[in-house]
Amino acid sequence: MKTDGTAAVVVPDNVLFEGGAGETVRKKLLETTDLHTILRLPTGIFYAQGVKANVIFFDNKTAAPTNQTKEIWIYDYRTNIKHTLKKNPLRETDLDDFVKCYNPENRRLRTETYSADNPDGRWRRYTYDEITARDKTSLDITWIKSGDSADDYTLAELLDLIKNKSSAIAAAVGNLENLIGEVDE
Q: What distances in angstroms separate CA 163 from CA 54, 109, 168, one per listed residue?
């Protein structure tokens, strides 16, 4: 990427919150680029059903003694939003509010739609200090209360969610068994 290049990259949710290498990559991005925007998308848009995706927007910068990211704007187009490939596919017009909030003509003149009076506002700003104070510098941030219920999912979607959760639980149990085995030795 050129020194003054810009990028929009689709990433699965785990990139925004995993520890280890994920945390290292996030810190490096905050330090060396202006990671200015995150668009949180509903499940199944870019990846398999049940996998949540995000688009991260950043500008590459030249080396500097301080971090390049000063603030990150997050648009939550995930909470309480449902799209399916056949019955309710994502359309360009669905993202009109995001584009308006993003303000591509001058992103320095953005205005939050979130406030104490409007807790369901989808557009919110976080400072660099607020982000780095989070556990593992997590960028997986939500503030809108979810109205999710099992009634909102098709049977196939529910089965996919159960499979994904089961796989995650099985992996966690395996890790725990390995740790216990190491302690017993």
A: 22, 43, 9
How far apart CA 158 and CA 49 sit, in angstroms, is 10
Residues 6+ apart with CB under 8 A from 13: 51, 52, 53, 54, 140
Q: How far is CA 22 from CA 18, 29, 107, in A?
A: 5, 11, 27
pLDDT per residue as tens digits for the range 28-54: 999 999 999 999 998 878 766 677 889
47 domain-assigned: yes
Domain extent at residue 139 = 6-147
Q: Tokens in use for 126?
A: 């976080």
pLDDT digits (tens, 9 = 90+) for 76-90: 999 998 887 777 888
Q: Are residues 169 and 134 in the same domain?
A: no
User: From the centroid of its chain, how far is CA 142?
Assistant: 9
Amino acid, res. 26: R
Instruction: Verify that 131 and 161 share a domain, yes or no.
Output: no
Q: CB neighbours (10 Å) of residue 123?
A: 21
Reading the block at residue 39, the tokens are 């668009």
Question: Do 40 and 76 touch, CB atoms closer than 8 A?
Answer: yes
Are residues 163 and 83 part of one domain? no
User: Is there a contact between 42 and 51 (Cβ–Cβ < 8 Å)?
Assistant: no
Rounded CA separation 18/79 (Å): 21
